[in-house]
Design brief:
The complex is a heterodimer.
Chain A lengths: L5 H29 L3 H4 L12 H11 L2 H32 L5 H10 L9 H9 L2 H10 L3 H7 L13 H5 L6 H12 L3 H9 L4 H12 L1 H16 L3 H6 L8 H7 L10 H21 L1 H11 L2
Helix pairs in contact in A: 1-16, 3-16, 4-10, 4-13, 4-15, 7-8, 13-16, 13-17, 15-16
Chain B lengths: L10 H30 E3 L6 E3 L3 H8 L1 H34 L4 H9 L6 H11 L6 H10 L9 H30 L2 H9 L4 H12 L1 H17 L2 H6 L12 H11 L3 H33 L1
Antiparallel strand pairs in B: 1-2
Helix pairs in contact in B: 1-13, 2-13, 3-7, 3-10, 5-7, 7-10, 8-9, 10-13, 12-13
The chains are: A mainly alpha, B mainly alpha.
């Protein structure tokens, strides 16, 4: 503090409390609605204090949205995407930083360009690839004049491999990450050359160096990155909506949005809000529990 | 850049790069190329052959009133979302930066909305602003006498999606503004105080100008967010309605591609969106260069 200004300090705290209360209002009211019976939750205006029916409503929402299965699906997807992004990015960065590659610029720009192609801008063609992963293979083979060989292989037509309604389809297309690759590149570049020299003198092989030196050194960055990516992956909506038509693979976020009342149905907002609380709980808890790592990761990642 | 000391090996580095490059080829570059092809060619209905149509898809798109409306709606939505989220984030960061006690608690309460999925944020605000039972809708009707109904009124629907989108993004801006504020050297503030500048003057004349690189970076990030990450909000709340009043570009690509099954138009829209991301990314990296200057 530069000077003493008690009045200004009180005002600061007052404004902060007001602003943060407003920020928390949507979730507070969701909690209130989720703790009331149907007739109370539909009253106008909604009471501002929670009731005692929270557990019953959570149980009802759990059943209606089949949240048990959806939460498991979300966990598999979020952990899979986060771990996949980290693994692919760390390996790529290792190759880019620690090897003299011909065509290094090519790999670098390929990864960099992917920054400019989020799923949202190429929805339909990406869906087509996931519906049949072999489409690009067929086309490439056709250009190279191998068309007939492949067509003959898939008996009675073209071979097909669909990733729709599968965990692979949910996870795999989202596992490339330019930002994570550049983050690891930054970290590896800051590792002193003396360590590499020592390792070479000791006859250390590249992969052993990666596992025994680089990974332990980047542990804190890795943890921060994992938290950011877990939250991002858990909250995906458009991609799961496209790839999944079988409710058995619904993620928690998609399952909740199915409970949002449509205009002509009897609104059961108390259950919708209960389901929303359950679906947002895991990423919110992760952020709150690992706040320090989360904030660091956010600022380091830059994008 | 590369290390002075490197490992030897020709095959190993490409094996290490292969997984990421394969994912990129299959799920990024191939679809992007397909989008361009589908935008420039038309598939013959019977033979399945490709026929060159050139820029016809783009011409039709830019001539259609629905698409023009969607562009205007997107600009309005992005500007309002980025502006609101940045202002509130800055406000909170300046306040928290002033406090000594309770700083960590305040920070915790400001950060967590970041973890809520856009689609769920949409559901929360739909409930809050539901014309029949929403608390805020009730307050607007009773307190200000506004007949509130986002299902019927275009501007009400826009307010609904902007509020939900900005609410989720405030935390992100808060984190960066607070980090920016704490990076400002104390001596500058103290020197200004010695020269007789009060708290308000110091904020306007010293602190905010020094925050401008952060603000510019955040502006780009907020625009990217509003453009591409808000599909879930529109899909759960207004579904683009009423009458296209909240049909942002990303929602329209999805709608035309998967509901309307107009592949050519959807592909042309994808190409336009790619051009937008490219320009935003270029802006962002321009800024990164500037920031290096700033620090050095």
């Amino acid at each position: 503090m530069v000077e003493r200004a008690p009045l200004l300090d009180v005002l600061t705290h007052l404004l902060l409390l007001l602003a943060l209360a407003a920020l928390c209002l949507p979730v507070w009211l969701a909690l209130v609605a989720a703790s009331l019976p149907l007739e109370e939750a539909a009253r106008v205006p909604l009471p501002l204090l929670p009731g005692d029916r929270l557990l019953e409503n959570l149980a009802a929402a759990w059943q209606r949205a089949e949240l048990g299965r959806a939460l498991v699906n979300s966990t598999i997807m979020a952990v899979g995407i986060a771990a996949g992004k980290i693994a692919l990015a760390a390996l790529s960065a290792f190759a880019l930083v620690y090897f003299r590659l011909r065509l290094r610029w090519f790999a670098f720009w390929a990864i960099f360009l992917s920054l400019m192609l989020p799923v949202e801008v190429r929805i339909v063609p990406t869906y087509e690839v996931v519906a049949n992963v072999l489409v690009p293979v067929h086309a490439l083979a056709g250009w190279l004049g191998l068309g007939s060989a492949l067509a003959a292989e898939g008996a009675g037509g073209i071979a097909k491999l669909s990733l729709l309604n599968s965990y692979a389809g949910l996870i795999l297309p989202l596992t490339a990450s330019a930002t994570a690759t550049f983050l690891f590149r930054q970290v590896f570049l800051s590792v002193p050359d003396e360590l590499t020299e020592a390792a070479l003198v000791d006859g250390c092989r590249p992969m052993a160096f990666f596992r025994l030196v680089l990974l332990p050194l980047s542990r804190t960055n890795l943890a921060a990155l994992f938290i950011i990516l877990f939250v991002w992956s858990w909250n995906q909506y458009l991609w799961p909506l496209l790839v999944v038509t079988d409710p058995a693979y619904d993620t928690a976020v998609v399952a909740v949005t199915r409970l949002v009342p449509s205009m002509d149905a009897l609104p059961r907002w108390h259950e919708t809000m209960a389901a929303a609380l359950l679906a947002m709980a895991p990423p919110v808890l992760v952020v709150l529990l690992f706040q320090r790592a989360f904030v660091r990761g956010l600022i380091e990642q830059d994008r | 850049m590369i290390k002075r000391v490197t490992f030897r090996g020709r095959l190993l580095p490409w094996l290490l790069l292969a997984p990421q490059l394969l994912v990129l080829l299959f799920f990024f570059f191939w679809p992007a190329g397909q989008a361009i092809v589908q935008a420039l060619f038309m598939v013959e209905p019977f033979s399945g052959e490709l026929q060159w149509v050139g820029l016809l898809n783009f011409e039709q798109l830019l001539a259609s009133p629905a698409y023009r409306r969607s562009i205007l709606v997107t600009i309005l939505f992005c500007a309002a979302t980025a502006g609101l989220a940045m202002l509130v984030g800055l406000f909170l960061a300046v306040l928290v930066d002033r406090t000594v006690r309770g700083r960590t608690v305040y920070r915790t309460f400001a950060i967590w909305p970041y973890a809520v999925a856009p689609a769920i944020a949409g559901a929360l605000f739909l409930f809050l602003l539901d014309p029949a039972i929403g608390v805020l809708a009730f307050a607007l009707r009773r307190g200000l006498g506004w007949p509130w109904d986002p299902h019927l009124d275009a501007s009400h629907a826009m307010v609904l999606v902007v509020l939900a989108a900005a609410w989720k993004q405030v935390a992100y801006n808060f984190v960066f503004f607070l980090a920016g504020l704490q990076a400002i050297p104390r001596v500058l503030i103290e020197a200004a105080a010695l020269d007789g500048a009060g708290p308000w003057q110091r904020l306007l004349r010293v602190t905010l100008p020094l925050l401008s690189p952060t603000a510019f970076f955040l502006l780009v990030m907020n625009l990217v967010y509003a453009f591409f990450d808000t599909f879930g909000i529109v899909a759960t709340t207004t579904e683009g309605g009423p009458a296209g009043a909240t049909r942002i570009l990303v929602y329209k690509v999805w709608e035309d591609g998967f509901v309307g099954l107009d592949l050519g138009s959807s592909a042309a829209q994808s190409v336009i969106l790619m051009a937008i991301v490219v320009s935003l990314t270029v802006l962002q990296f321009r800024f990164l260069e500037k920031r290096v200057h700033y620090a050095g």
